Amino acid sequence: MLIELRMPALSPTMEEGTLAKWLVKQGDEVKSGDLLAEIETDKATMEFEAVDEGTISAILVPPGTEGVKVGTVIALISAEGDDVNAKPAPKAEAPKAETPKAEPAPPPPVQTPAPQAHVTEASGDRIIASPLARRLAATLGIDLSKVTGTGPNGRIVKADVEGAPQVATASAPASAAAASAPQAPAVHAAAKPVWFDDSIPHEIEKLSNIRKTIARRLTEAKQTIPHIYLTVDIRLDALLKLRAELNAGLESRGIKLSVNDLLIKALAVALEQTPKCNVTFLGNEMVSYKRADISVAVSTPSGLITPIIRDAANLSVSRISNEMKELAARAKEGKLQPREYQGGTASLSNMGMYGIKQFEAVINPPQGMILAIGAGEKRPFVVDDALAIATVMSATGSFDHRAIDGSDGAQLMQVFKDLVEKPMGMLA
């Protein structure tokens, strides 16, 4: 019996994904737990594991295919004793309903995993293309018979049409199409969603699902969440001294703490001491968290992602350091699991390593706040009523003003400042 391997839902919000790469080929034997493919979701690139044993009988969705709906059959696995070359029977007959009824004998069925694919005839050859690709080709004046499909079983998809040369369609009024062909670039230019000066040398790169999600979520956050920003200047000298002492003691264990590790700890403790800021706004209700899970912004080749240090207030700084290093490494490789980046009660974003003095971060919904950390630098500072030189950083909290009043946000910033300037308090 053939086992259908379907596009999985790798996150609660996932509706479709990109099949980035197959890690197996037809004829390979697989068992439960083997890695089958890499799938790019709206949050990360994740590995897809087998749950059944057998032999890969057919791969139905080629690598690089975008917009594969959750539940779509992407491959077939034959159990032991089955015919490896067997084909799925039921759904292959679906396209027959759309074949011309004037033909004395029906054409052979088209083997495609997407039963909605439209099949038409052009110059005696059969062309398989998505409805969107057909509409786009008609608008741009592109002959589908000259386009190579990259979708399942050679199906022409939107991306194929967009990358095809702009030639006139092979339709009946060929002369009229040829006459209008020189104007095709103008039509294409007018269809651009955002105008830009394409006379400037440039390249156009397709956005990954992750980058699209970042753009969508940040736009929604700025449009729907009323942000309030509160900034404090914090002396780092005591924290830097403590860090040096801790690293000296941890050297034999191969652990080296970063300033960011200590700031994660400080924010978590501050949230537990100011619970009115550790919340999520639900419209008519408010969620108040009993634990501080800190999402930490990590830059990756495909975009920003926020792995989570859970219950950070009750973890040792060395434990935070080890977890953060492991999560950041797997984030940059695109290997995070959904539970490792979904959730969190507040976020921390540190751009101090880039020399950024101060910035205002966008809240990561559904969280109620995010803390933006600037660079520590030597500044004139009043110490004990006297002007001195101190290492100072600026920290800016962005708060959801629907849920957190300015006075509550100010209290959290003050607690955070005190913990950083007197760091033994957060370790006790």
Explain this structure.
With 428 residues, this protein is an alpha+beta fold. The protein has 3 domains: 87 residues, Beta Barrel (OB fold (Dihydrolipoamide Acetyltransferase, E2P)), CATH 2.40.50.100; 96 residues, Irregular (Dihydrolipoamide Transferase); 217 residues, Chloramphenicol Acetyltransferase. It is 26% helix and 26% strand. Helix 7 packs across helix 9. The relative contact order is 0.10.
Topology of this structure?
Blueprint: E1 2-6, E2 16-22, E3 29-30, E4 35-40, E5 45-49, E6 54-59, E7 65-69, E8 73-78, E9 118-122, E10 125-129, H1 131-140, H2 158-162, H3 174-180, H4 184-190, H5 209-224, E11 227-235, H6 237-250, H7 259-273, E12 279-281, E13 286-288, E14 294-296, E15 298-300, E16 303-305, E17 308-309, H8 317-332, E18 346-350, E19 369-373, E20 377-383, E21 386-400, H9 406-421, H10 424-427
Parallel strand pairs: 14-18, 18-19
Antiparallel strand pairs: 1-8, 2-4, 2-7, 3-6, 4-5, 6-8, 9-10, 11-21, 12-13, 14-17, 15-16, 19-21, 20-21
Key terms:
seven-stranded mixed sheet, 3 domains, OB fold (Dihydrolipoamide Acetyltransferase, E2P), 428 residues, Dihydrolipoamide Transferase, Chloramphenicol Acetyltransferase, alpha+beta, four-stranded antiparallel sheet
